[in-house]
Amino acid sequence: MPWPTLQRLRSKGLSWRDYQRLRALNRRFAQAAPPARGAAVWFFNASARLWGLSQNAAFQWLTAWSLRLRGIPVRQWVCQAGLPRCVLAAAQDEGRDAPPCAMCQAQSARLYPPGAWNVVPIHTSPDPAFARAIAHLPLDALLRFTWADLPLGEIITPSLRWALRRHNLPDTPTTRALARAFLTGAWNLARAVQARLDHERPRAAVVFNGQFYPEATLAYLTRRAGIPTITHEVGLRPLTAFFTHGEATAYPIELPDDFELSPQQEARLNAYLSRRFQGDFTMAGIRFWPDMRGLDEAFLAKAARFRALVPIFTNVVFDTSQKHANVLFPHMFAWLDGLRAVIQEHPEVLFVLRAHPDEQRPGKAARESVRAWVQQHQIHTWP
């Protein structure tokens, strides 16, 4: 049997197994959950998976069930082909094709079966006036677009950068079309959320990431209404999640001035850092440096010729965390441009520029990369 056929059969087998496990867990939890009382907690996650079950989607599902098992009602917002273009699907082809809604909805039904969950569906609801307002705008105007006191252009910008794998967005027909689709989706969702808020005040809202436009739209409206809003992302350690009333992509952690690690915590941290320094690092189920080893003799010999060594760490320029990083500089490459002069002024120092491995990860390769920046400025030719 051909290998691709075997792979498809294996994938279907795993999907069927996961479906059976989800169905059994939903049934088991539903039987154990006490009667729900009080205001509901809203949950929304439209940007962590299309098919299958990512860690972020699983963390939200488990968190919602943990509340239900304590008698706290939950409303799960679920997209039902309500977004002309979603972020994950658009990232695969720059939004040229319609998203795989049927596949996504089938997985949503597995995660949130109607008999076991209180689901709020998000459907398409055309607004001709809105469509006319954005139809012929240039990209700059689309990214600054405001409608009904909602900064929709600002809300969609991180998603547009993430889907197109770049920070600097070209004013092309493809970019404008995707921006209009994201704006339309955000406005469609905003109307549904506001209509629900007009007659229901949830206890809290929990959304994934908080920067992708579907979740960011709901979070903007709930925060404006004074409702506690929580965002979540994967934690820094394997199989952990980070929840915060702030922005999860900034990972805000407040430590008291007198905080000290215990000896056991120190040992645990040192062991973690030792593994990470060797590339043994996993986040969201992804092993970023599987082939990383110690520094070779050639590099050590080269480094010995310099007075000092300075590592420069960079991120993928489209990452949703960059909103919090771009404070002193408008974007990462502006910062790197500033460093070029420093590097040239100090030939006695070896500067090691570390590009994030996500820049070349299949399916997520950057269209604006540190590698390209180095080649553009011929930095690799410097002594």
How would you describe this protein?
Helix 2 links the parallel strand 1 and strand 2. The relative contact order is 0.10. The longest helix is centred in the first third of the chain and has 30 residues, at 3-32. The protein has 14 helices and 10 strands. The chain has helices spanning 3-32, 55-68, 87-93, 101-111, 128-134, 139-143, 152-164, 173-197, 213-224, 263-277, 297-303, 322-325, 332-345, 370-376; strands spanning 41-44, 74-79, 119-122, 204-208, 229-234, 241-244, 282-283, 286-287, 308-313, 349-354. The mean pLDDT is 91. It is of the alpha/beta class and 383 residues long. The chain folds into 3 domains: 7-250, Rossmann fold; 262-294; 295-381, no CATH class.
